[in-house]
Amino acid sequence: MALGAEPAAELWQAATEGRFTLTAEAAHEMAGHYQWYADELRHRADEIALQQKLDGFGSLNSAQHLQAGFERKAVQAFEAYGKAQESALRMKAAVLRAASLTEEVDAANTAALNAATRKITDVKA
After folding, report:
1. Residue 76 has what pLDDT?
2. Which domain of life is it from (predicted)?
3. Spatial contact of 31 and 108, defined as CB atoms under 8 Å apart
4. Is 75 buried (19+), middle (13-18) or exposed (0-12) by CB count in 10 A?
5. CB neighbourhood size of 91 (10 A)
6. Within a 10 A sphere around the Cβ of 13, how many other Cβ atoms?
7. What is the reported pTM?
8. DSSP states of 88-113 as a string?
9. For every one of its 125 residues, what pLDDT tens digit does the chain have, with 9 covering 90 and above?
10. CB 97 within 8 A of CB 16
11. Count of CB atoms within 10 A of residue 80's CB?
């Protein structure tokens, strides 16, 4: 499964230009896979978000630095999962566009935008 901003943009362009077309049935099948992947990525990001604030490292300066490093890594991982989730949803939008499923394309693009703008502080424990 090709993912990333560039493959998603290329697929979108091909669908928009009519170089990539699908039946509604095929588009729904493919879109379902991208949606599953996006859901998995969101779930993993939510798990990582819980690691943003850690405790139990002690009061030594070196322990505090170690704790801060792990917390930064959690934020970086959350952001990486968010970008991957956005890409999966952009791919979903592109395959739906290939079948001219306009309302579903709009919903997928909205979901991609939401994934792109989601912050680690939005996750509730």
Report:
1. 93
2. Bacteria
3. yes
4. middle
5. 27
6. 13
7. 0.89
8. HHHHHHHHHHTTT-HHHHHHHHHHHH
9. 556 889 999 999 999 999 999 999 999 999 999 999 999 999 999 999 988 887 888 889 988 898 889 888 989 999 999 999 999 999 999 999 999 999 999 999 999 999 999 999 889 87
10. yes
11. 14
DSSP state of 18: T
Comparing C-alpha atoms, which of 39, 29, 35 is closest to residue 98?
A: 29
Q: Tokens standing for 85?
A: 């989730």
Contacts 24+ apart (CB under 8 A), 51-57: 52/78, 52/120
* Residue whose token pair is 């170690």: 66
